Amino acid sequence: MVALAITLPVPAGVFMPVFIIGAAFGRLVGESMSAWFPNGINSGPLVINNIVPGGYAVVGAAALSGSVTHTISTSVIVFELTGQITHILPVMIAVLIANAISQLLQPSIYDSIIQIKRLPYLPDISSSGPRYE
Question: Which residue, 37, 88, 93, 98, has most beta carbons within 10 Å?
């Protein structure tokens, strides 16, 4: 889906295919955690936290979308989509870590498309401070 959405000469979204792939990977991690810990995770006496694979899917979708697009606003999009306030902390942590790592490794998908198609774009602003001549 992503390859088709990127290579077509028509306006097509990159966000939703990446979001779906991230949700699928997060769900896979959630299901494997649920299989490894069928009774949940004990975090103290008489406190058992059940594992919800859907929560892992939400976090995976937000993290992959945030890392591919290099935006933190994907966490806000996830909050608006789900309406769950309980997922704020895991989603924000996952998006921030994924975004930080991906910015070190590669440009965003939008910058990559601009460079591949050799379209004109504004270069990054240097952080050396103002120059007065």
Answer: 98
